[in-house]
Amino acid sequence: MTYEKKGGSNTSDPQKYRFGFILSTSLGNITRYDIFKRFAERDPDIDFSWAPVKHYFSPKEANPFKRFPGFIQKRAIVLYQAFPVLRKLLSLDLVMIHLYEADVLTALRGYFSSSPLRVISSDDAPASDPSRYPFHPVELEKPAWRRAVRLKVDIWRARRADLLIPFSRWAGELLVEGAGVDKDRVIPIHVGLDLSLWKYESKCQQETGKPTKLLFVGGEFFRKGGGDLLTAVEGPLASLVELHIVTKTSLKNLPSNVYVYNDLNANDERLARLYREAEILVHPTTSDLSPWVILEAMASGCAVITTRVGGIVDFIDEGDTGLFVPVGDPTALAIAIMTLVTDPALRLGMGARARKIIEESYDAEVNVKRILRVLKNLVDQRRKRAPP
Asked: Are 93 and 85 in contact (CB under 8 A)?
């Protein structure tokens, strides 16, 4: 069981804020957890209790639930890893949660106790409007009745939360307009990037005749639109671009101008170098909420070609920092790539403006302080004293 605590003891100064965090570390969420924890713990006024949670055990970890059925096993693993914070709820002022199972449990507990304050931090808003929600393929395979039940539970727990901090305005709108949450209890703030790790060097126009470097980053290659990308770079683009693919999917029989990296993880220096060397991030995803790869590419000065899926619409300003293409349209994708490949000034300008947006709106050193300030103010209202 993973449990991390920092900032004080159980008998700490009563004037300190006592916050618990049950946050997902599965897939890309590990980046958010690491960034948030690193910057949050700089605040001396808070006693922190951390429960990093994933939906599985690594091969090196013992799994006490291995004989459980898959569905039950997944839920049990989450609650087991969240338990170090769950067992301390009575001593906490506030708990922030980014796990469905733990949130349902604390929402039920709220019928018997109003302490601690409960904050949901996620972009996985209730799918009240299916036309606006990018369902993961696994969700679409579930029977309609299960999705309907999940929607009712998601709306119920959202309405019972004391505060919701989604990562994007898109998710905030779903919570207010679709789930009926009071807009005063929804404050979208993205954790942001650690800009000390994402140094920016302005990109120069490539030499005449040299191919333009495209970058694709996505563990699930085909869900992220990788198949459409391979189709798009055939034909006229084949001699104009060099495509670098970072994925966990095994790919074979690729053209000579396509390079695949299966062994890169988040925050790998080799991945950061690929971002710095690339000129365009191509992310034609079919299903996403708020993918980190787009922010990382923007921080690296890349122009972005992507789809209007989930919270991505908050990241990219059409024509200014990138281009949008329809989902599942390799022809439109090829046209967008060709537009930027043949107009160096356009793509370089997009990349420079993208970096500026990151510095202005997605700096973790600023955004984590904003999140903690919001949490402190919520506790102050409970304590009935003026905010510091």
From this structure: no
Q: Do 48 and 5 touch, CB atoms closer than 8 A? A: yes
**Biggest alpha carbon–alpha carbon distance for the chain:** 70
Per-residue pLDDT in tens (0 to 9) along the chain, 388 residues: 444 555 544 445 667 999 999 999 987 889 999 999 999 999 999 999 999 999 888 888 888 888 888 778 888 999 999 999 999 999 999 999 999 999 999 999 999 998 999 999 998 899 888 888 888 888 888 899 999 999 999 999 999 999 999 999 999 999 999 999 999 999 999 999 999 998 888 877 666 678 999 999 999 999 999 999 999 999 899 999 999 999 999 999 999 999 999 998 877 889 999 999 999 999 999 999 999 999 999 999 999 999 999 999 999 999 999 999 999 999 999 999 999 999 999 999 999 999 999 999 999 999 999 999 999 999 999 887 545 4
| 8 A C-beta contact, residue 237 and residue 245 | no
Q: Which of 133, 79, 93 is nearest to 381 (CA)?
A: 93
Rounded to two decimals, the pTM is 0.90
Strand order in the sheet with 4-6: 4-6, 46-53, 17-24, 94-97, 117-120, 163-164
Check: CB of residue 105 under 8 Å from CB of residue 79: yes
Q: Are strands 46-53 and 4-6 parallel, antiparallel or unpaired?
A: antiparallel
d(CA 263, CA 246): 8
What end-to-end distance do the CA atoms of the chain give, in Å? 36
CA 241 to chain CA centroid, nearest Å: 29
